[in-house]
């Protein structure tokens, strides 16, 4: 019995896989508090591992019967008995305390001060139907748009009850929720929502953004209670949830802002609020999947894309000029007729792309609609004409009005795939250009195909602005807030902490950015914001020691700001702020390979035998830019130095490592493979290389592709 796995395995944190771990972790502390106040030894023996195992066994039996459609077979198992069991409440208290719920409600009782008497009284109130939740303590947090988001913090007793209800209701509803819903669900996150878009959405024409205005505050109580009663027939549980929905709030800072009874909405900020919102919005998911998606999805999966007649005519049909060009290619390049025809077709394909001629055939049979929801943010992807997008929005708005939910017009709208859309702090856009691909794994023959997947990138400008608002960055020119470059500054809130604590906190910020934006296809865009955070850390350390400038901190602690400190056990540990190499990307994974390569060029130069880059290919691939030679339709393939490096090295008599460093920062131009070979072979007859558009390391940072 003691080895019984918890039902919450997979629904809660992975550290708490067996109830013995939770039980042994907190029972001794709780027992120590109640020994002096307990009147008899019977109260102390209320908490046992065997009793806790019996409670979870009952819950497991009940859930299995519900999954099998036999909700009323085991009438001797009542959910109210499970909820009111003091061992079950003790387990819920452990989870709340383990999560770090430190903000108290109007009772001003921290979660760690709860004793045995509180749990026993709470258990009796739930059994006898006397439990009444108290009003929540209302606070607010600032939004980026200067508006306020109000939160209701429940009391400690109410937190325990809500957590216990979540343990019962979450496995009851989880199997029935939509696969398109990812917000506030176990084993789901922002990355799972984005990964679904990456895997399933293809050739999207238009994005539809829909943001629900004050979603948590406008959900109807009847809709929530009806959905719960359909899955849980225990009226006592439904009555308790009804009481939780109706309890109001008290603003201790503003006595006029009080409401002791809520007529609609769920208490945002409480433990059970996200689950209740998902239960209510599940009806919206079902409506989208059963009515909206089938209505506007004509094309089924695993059906090959047909070429449009316009594209076929532009690429395949040959006229008199094409035949003359074919014959001239055969004579001048000494190639076969078939090879000459393929060259002309590739040129015509590029011209069709430049003229915005779509390869895929678009009609009613090719239309398709996708849908993803994360909490109150919804995103649709539609393949089809724009006039049908307005029809889709009108149907969605009509349904939302019926359930009493309004749309935030400032955050909702229609976006073309080329302009992209911002969803879950990612920039998602479509760039369906032609690319070269092998016909099969065993063949070296290549063909040009159109890219059908979406691109994901990080909103670097938004991240920079957010860092500025939080005090990590500032404008480099006083009084100028528009079009001014942002530079690092010291972070005053952490100025008086220990040096190793300062570095650790900056490391948490940088690691969070890297881990969240690991789905970006070009993660090198994050280098700018990461290095600014690192310089902010160096400035904070210098100010902590009453010094000026970031160079002092780099000289004292090294390029990686490595700091050693002593633990309480007497052992020595260290922390640093080493910027990892952001290679790869485009996959939404939980782990990122850190410290794969040396973090800086200066550090790499000190390592014997380490390869140092000589061109801008280490910063950005040349294939992302078109060839600099005028009238060339090819994408670039190489970075070419304008000044000959051998001649430049003769003028600059310095070490080889320094010459390599100069080669990286020298002006370079992106050229295609053919022009690159022509330049080195002396056959280039185009404009002077100095007159072409050139780039440096600093230019790449602000290059828009």
Outline the fold blueprint:
Layout: H1 19-34, H2 41-44, H3 49-67, H4 79-84, H5 86-99, H6 116-128, E1 136-142, E2 148-153, H7 156-173, H8 190-200, E3 206-213, H9 215-218, H10 221-231, H11 235-246, E4 247-250, E5 258-261, H12 273-295, H13 309-315, H14 320-333, H15 337-354, E6 368-374, E7 377-383, H16 386-402, E8 406-407, E9 413-416, E10 421-423, E11 426-430, E12 434-438, E13 446-450, E14 454-457, H17 460-470, E15 473-475, E16 486-488, H18 499-516, H19 527-544, H20 550-557, E17 563-566, E18 572-575, H21 601-605, E19 638-641, H22 645-651, H23 656-665, E20 668-671, H24 673-681, H25 697-701
Textual characterization of the structure:
This protein has 705 residues and is α+β, with helices and mostly antiparallel strands. 42% of the residues lie in helices and 13% in strands. The strands form 7 sheets. Strands 3, 6, 7, 8 and 9 form a 5-stranded antiparallel β-sheet that branches. Strands 2-1-4-5 form a 4-stranded mixed β-sheet. The longest helix has 23 residues, at 273-295. It is globular.
List keywords for this structure.
705 residues, alpha+beta
Q: State the end-to-end distance.
A: 61 Å
* Count of β-strands: 20
Overall pLDDT score: 77
Helices, by number, come to 25
Largest sheet: 5 strands, antiparallel
Coarse shape: globular
Q: Please bin the fraction of helical residues.
A: 40-55%
Query: Uncertain runs with pLDDT below 50, 5 residues or more?
Result: 1-19, 30-44, 590-612
Q: Could you state the oligomeric state of the chains shown? A: single chain
The proportion of strand residues reads: 5-15%
The helix/strand class is alpha+beta
